[in-house]
Specification:
The protein has about 400 residues and is of the alpha+beta class. It is about 35% helix and about 20% strand. Bound molecules: ligand EPS.
Length: about 400
């Protein structure tokens, strides 16, 4: 069976975005309301531009579904673009004064044109709607196994929160995050972040920030240390760096590891039999500096990732640039844009990260149907709880399967 994977297609101002997810097991319940709720969340957040008032992102299933369940075939989804005017020359003028920080310059040289339009249409963060849809589908797969994701905004410019997110408090933070205009579950910091975005708008400038996602409920052993391409942390970094405008990814303590000695970085291990039936299988850590991954595999702790989003590169005030046709100095072109899309990026990263966990989860518990995946998952946990496995015990347990 194919590895869980996805592809996206569609231009920002084309007729629609199209998402194909392959490798889904038959029998997977596709929670359309949940997928659409994630898409709606991505459209929100203080600092978004006019486009979000035009769009109303929802998925339409085009293939791979019967009676609300995946059938094991490629799943094809469409999100319609209401602002679809790519072929309308009057409304989509050429972009020939590239924006520093945008794909404009590199793309126009790469595709040998002085009109950056075709480059920017795919580079646009509109594509992140597709990635949220794919990630939300992956979350439908993870949920029956108790694996859930929580993402939020950690900081915008210098307005940052410092609270800890734990297995015990994250559910209470969901409502606080959803009540925040900036998706930051801290009211005082939300106010400062709003003020920063408001000021950036007045200054015709833009701002970025840091988003964080936690994935709860993974047992140890998702991902693999045997080959770098199968390491979960490597997959996360690859996928998250692929999100528009992301410039850095950190797992757990991240960069901070460099300024601490080993004894203040690594999470001591103990065994608590009363927690044998939790995702940790009883292998307890009192800190989670590793961000839930060791050797590229989950270690039973929550997976914690952070992404840094640069400020949006379309500035109303412009930046020094050139006219690609004459090479003369000009200010960069302005296109309708967001002042800050960090809130949206938190939803994108949460879903993108969940997809990578689901990908590694399916690699480990591979099966054509949810029945098989469930059986493989349960028998793995059974063996893991029986450790150390004596050869006879293994044989007996194996026969009993
Ligand atoms: C974007 C420019 C804006 C944003 C867009 C990303 O698009 P438009 O030029 O149509 O106003 O709104 O983001 C989205 C459309 C979205 O759905 O997130 C860009 O240049 O990256």
């Amino acid at each position: 069976m194919p590895t869980l994977n996805y592809q996206t297609a569609g231009e920002s101002h084309g007729p629609s975005l199209v998402i194909t997810v392959t490798g889904l097991p038959a029998g997977l319940d596709l929670d359309e309301a949940f997928i659409n709720a994630e898409l709606a969340r991505r459209q929100g957040g203080y600092g978004r531009g006019g486009r979000q008032r035009i769009e109303q992102d929802t998925v339409e299933f085009l293939a791979g579904v019967r009676r609300g369940k995946a059938i094991g075939a490629p799943l094809v989804m469409r999100i319609v673009n209401n602002d679809s005017r790519l072929d309308d020359l009057a409304k989509t003028p050429p972009v020939y004064r590239p924006r520093p920080g945008h794909a404009d310059l590199a793309g126009s040289v790469k595709w040998l044109t002085t009109d950056c339009r075709e480059t920017l249409e795919r580079a646009s963060a509109r594509e992140t709607a597709s990635r949220v849809a794919a990630g939300a589908v992956a979350r439908c797969l993870l949920r029956p196994f108790g694996i859930e994701a929580f993402g939020f905004v950690r900081s915008i410019l210098d307005a940052a929160t410092t609270f800890d997110v734990t297995e015990d408090n994250w559910r209470s933070l969901v409502a606080k995050r959803d009540a925040s205009d900036t998706y930051c579950p801290d009211e005082a910091v939300t106010q400062r972040q709003r003020e920063i975005i408001r000021q950036a708008k007045i200054d015709q400038d833009t701002v970025g920030g840091i988003v964080e996602a936690h994935i709860f409920g993974c047992p140890p052993g998702i991902g693999s240390s045997m080959d770098w391409t199968t390491k979960l942390d490597a997959r996360l970094a690859y996928a998250i760096m692929g999100i528009q405008a992301f410039k850095a990814v950190e797992i757990g303590l991240g960069r901070e590891c460099a300024s601490r000695t080993g004894s203040r970085v690594h999470d001591p291990i103990r065994y608590d039999p009363s927690r044998k039936n939790t995702p940790s299988l009883g292998f307890v850590r009192d800190s989670n500096n590793a961000g839930g991954t060791e050797g590229g595999m989950t270690n039973g702790q929550p997976v914690v990732v952070r992404g840094t989003m640069k400020p949006i590169s379309t500035l109303l005030r412009g930046m020094p640039s050139i006219d690609l046709n004459t090479k003369e100095a000009q200010m960069s072109q302005y296109e309708r844009s967001d002042v800050c899309a960090v809130s949206a990026a938190s939803v994108v990263m949460e879903n993108v990260a969940a997809f990578e966990v689901a990908r590694c989860f399916c690699d480990k518990f591979a099966g054509d149907s949810m029945f098989e995946i469930t059986r493989n998952y349960e028998s793995y946990l059974k063996f893991a709880r029986m450790l150390p496995l004596e050869p006879p015990a293994m044989t007996i347990a194996g026969k009993g399967e």
